[in-house]
Amino acid sequence: MDKIWLKNYPAGVPHTVEPGQYRSAAHLLEEAMQKHAANPFSVCLERWTSYAELDRQSAQLGAWLQAQGLEPGARVAIMLPNIPQFAATMAAVLRAGCVCVNVNPLYTARELEHQLNDSGATAIVILENFAHTLAEVLPRTAVRHVVLTAMGDLLGAAYGAWITFAVRHLAKMVPAFVLPLTGGQKVTHFGDALAQGAGHTLAPSQATLDCTAFLQYTGGTTGLSKGAVLTHRNIVAAVLQAEAWFAPALERLGDASRANNIAALPLYHIFALTLCLLTIRQGAHLTLVPNPRDIPKFVKVLQKRPFHMLPAVNTLFNALLQNAQFRTLDFAPLCMAQAGGMAASEGTAREWQKVTHTTMVEGWGMSETCAIGTNNPVNSTSFSGTIGLPLPGIDLAIKDEDGHGVALGSAGEICIRGPNVTPGYYQQPQENANAFTADGFLRTGDIGVMDTEGYTRIIDRKKDMILVSGFNVYPNEIENVVSLCPGVLECAAIGIPDAQQGEAVKVFVVRSDPALTEDAVMRHCHDNLTGYKCPRFIEFRNDLPKTNVGKVLRRQLRSSTA
């Protein structure tokens, strides 16, 4: 198929990448940590970690894992927020030849038990704040090694002890727990694991590019989550693709290692995880934000020093724009505001451009594609409303239900293949049979249209489509229109049963202007949407249900109206 998008690549961006330059993701990490040993790697609560420290900590923890008898390919769960222990643990697991299983720290006991058992994890590194959840399920899992860490463990002796005390006793963020140990299970403190690992030599990983590096679990919003197998090749390719694509935005720094990348999205999520890996590859540094929901504190972090790359979901960009102090920041150093994880709205993008004088650059991807599959050019000067172009080495096709390509400009399912795309789901043969086309494309479940320039516009998710009197109505289109209505802060559209039309459109609105009325929203919709797309119902709410990453949960909105 013709890669019509290549003609619109920014100058200097290669058409392909070469993952084969590395033996594995561990090889990439080790090379970068040694090359950039003197550089700062991360800052958290104003305490810095260097690449040399990251190298030492991950080697010690990796050696400890090997000393416990974990075989190559053993699954190690990581249940940590954005603190220095995350990168050290992730690198340690890969360097030990094991497989990372990222876990959402806010999981319920049911969700945690499913993921531990589905992945076959035999070890877990967990922040003590969440240990009460593990305590509920530990005896019913295969986990034998629990590495327990406290908030301040890698923040220096005195300051770290104070932070741990404050989290435990002042903020009371560590619920009481007792881990039930049966059948040889043991608990080791993070600091003790590092100390014990220092007495062992880390055996080099024998993993190849075709070995599994991560089991990255999908959100599970429609049922039990499933693990996307991400190989070392997938990971290396995704890092090299992101590096190539973002290069034009970072040119004015002269050296990408000078970049301050903001890690506000949770690192266990594929979007932020790829940023973390890219940061290490480039020798830049991460500003770790453990709790981005506290917008005033987040803004104070941004005030500390110039920041150059800010990845976020639409709701986080929106929340920042509502903060008066944020609007006074110096945005001159900002090289790139990367939107992903959910659809970006035109209303938020317009306001972002007005306030920061930078473009919100939208991309698209999934856990199954190691984050970014397509992205708008980073030198864009305006918000396009599309998800951009396939990254280097990626093929994108719009296909019908039978897996045949549709004509340019016609709607169909977005399908993707490339070196960053998962080979399949862990122990899910039926899912895998359904997930791929005969010619090797992954079916994404997103409905889109590609234009003659190779740009793709997402219409919506298959499962979220609303059927009104036989016409397809896509919530993203409704939400984009409503977001431009003066006085609207956030919105979400769903379909509800209707005796005459099959379904009717209902929109939930969070107001920025308390005086906004239902009639005003309806008039705005009638001015901008054809009749069958206009909402029949408007409901004002104080907030919308969201995932930990910030995606609006339409499923919860649907169930609340059932």
Structure write-up:
The protein is α/β, with parallel strands linked by helices and 562 residues long. The chain is built from 16 helices and 26 strands.
Helices and strands, with pairings:
Layout: H1 25-35, E1 40-44, E2 47-50, H2 51-67, E3 75-79, H3 84-95, E4 99-102, H4 109-119, E5 123-127, H5 131-137, E6 145-149, H6 157-170, E7 186-189, H7 190-197, E8 212-217, E9 227-231, H8 232-250, E10 260-263, H9 270-282, E11 285-288, H10 295-304, E12 309-312, H11 314-321, E13 336-339, H12 346-356, E14 360-366, E15 371-375, E16 389-390, E17 395-399, E18 412-417, E19 424-425, H13 429-435, E20 442-450, E21 456-461, E22 466-468, E23 471-473, H14 475-483, E24 488-498, E25 502-511, H15 518-528, E26 537-540, H16 554-561
Parallel strand pairs: 1-11, 3-4, 3-5, 4-8, 5-6, 6-7, 10-11, 12-13, 13-14, 25-26
Antiparallel strand pairs: 1-2, 8-9, 9-19, 14-15, 15-16, 17-18, 18-20, 20-21, 22-23, 24-25
